[in-house]
Specification:
The structure is a single chain. By secondary structure, the protein is an all-alpha fold. It has one domain. 75% of the residues lie in helices and 0% in strands. The chain has helices at residues 2-19, 21-25, 27-41, 47-55, 58-74, 78-89, 91-109, 111-122, 129-146, 155-163, 175-201, 217-240, 242-249, 254-260, 269-276, 283-296, 305-314, 318-343. Helix 1 (2-19) runs antiparallel to helix 3 and helix 12 (217-240) runs parallel beside helix 15 (269-276). The relative contact order is 0.15.
């Protein structure tokens, strides 16, 4: 009966955000409640479980808070800096460097701040709207991949590192970096080159992307609280779903885990990571699952945090995003799969 209750809860977690608008808007609190329910169903409450749920979000929350305050202090100077740098280097080179830096360093100043920086920069880069949308999509793929390299980058990597912190992996701060950099870094360079190519081909004027919401200190603080609650809920979710994972998921072949995670295009990839990653899995299974989640997460707006932030702030429609991101993401997933098979 426990497994049936967990499967019902999992179905609710996956479906309610699409069916109930208030759940979608308050996803952090909903997932925290779902995590508490999962732990209750499996009778997994313990002092250790509570401490883990309280402790795990601290690093990424602190990074979001500090980076957010710094961004708020200096955001007013970004416009003039963008104009000077893009005119001095040329827009293709500027876009290449922008995507490279945001992708490589999102794992240290968080995918959230990288997406906010991206939105601010794009609103001053002065390219046609269609080209700007493509550059935003490409950038979010790079940010989403780069952010998985450390537990500071985004909730997905925070959860994966926390779930593998004990035996047999004893995952530390650079665990995911050591296992995945060989895939992630070349991909970020590719995305940077694709963004530069897009900028070089851009022609004509017309409508531009502009930020429709400005940040403030209150927004920074609220976002920090929500990130803490979100990650704490994911930790509880992972604890509660452990019996389901070990029974049904841990034995799946790596290629199945990779391709089934294409559903993270429509479902938050950190939630899926909390529900499926387990220390009883092999390193090949873990790498395949995480890479599948990270890549597919860029294909539609709901799949990843940088997509949601950038699309919301720049007014990009779901259809505009999907038109370019779906074929790009499918191609990247196919190429990555070949690399995973070659490296196994």
């Amino acid at each position: 009966m426990v497994h049936i209750y967990l499967l019902v809860l999992l179905a609710l977690i996956l479906l309610l955000p699409f069916l109930v608008r208030s759940v979608e808007e308050q996803m952090e609190y909903f997932l925290f409640a779902a995590g508490a329910a999962a732990v209750t169903i499996t009778s997994s409450w313990s002092v250790h479980a509570v401490i883990e749920a309280a402790k795990t979000p601290l690093i990424i929350t602190a990074a979001v808070l500090v980076s957010g305050i710094i961004f708020e202090l200096f955001s007013g100077k970004i416009a003039s800096a963008v104009e000077k740098m893009s005119s001095g280097t040329g827009k293709p080179l500027f876009v290449f460097l922008m995507i490279l830096v945001l992708g490589l360093f999102s794992s240290f100043f968080t995918a959230i701040i990288a997406a906010l920086l991206l939105s601010e920069i794009i609103s001053h880069i002065n390219l046609p709207r269609d080209s700007e949308i493509k550059i935003v999509v490409i950038s979010c793929f790079a940010i989403g991949l780069g952010a998985i390299l450390t537990p500071v980058g985004e909730p997905l990597s925070t959860i994966v590192t926390a779930k593998l912190s004990a035996e047999p992996f004893n995952a530390g701060f650079f665990f995911l970096f050591e296992k995945l950099w060989i895939f992630v870094v070349p991909a970020i360079i590719f995305f940077a080159a694709a963004g530069a190519f897009t900028a070089a081909r851009a022609k004509g004027g017309g409508e531009k992307l502009k930020e429709n919401k400005k940040e403030g200190l209150a927004s920074v603080l609220l976002r920090t609280v929500k990130v803490y609650i979100f990650v704490a809920g994911l930790v509880l979710l992972g604890t509660g779903f452990r019996p389901l994972v070990e029974t049904y998921i841990a034995g799946l072949p790596y290629y199945f885990l990779y391709w089934i995670n294409i559903v993270s295009a429509v479902l938050d990839n950190a939630t899926l990571a909390a529900a499926e990653i387990s220390p009883v899995m092999s390193i090949l299974q873990i790498k395949s699952a995480v890479l599948g989640l990270a890549i597919a997460g860029g294909m539609l707006i709901p799949g990843n945090i940088p997509n949601i932030i950038s699309a919301n702030k720049l007014g990009i429609k779901s259809s505009e995003w999907a038109r370019f991101a779906l074929p790009l993401g499918a191609a990247v997933m196919a190429v990555f799969f070949v690399f995973i098979m070659a490296a196994k």
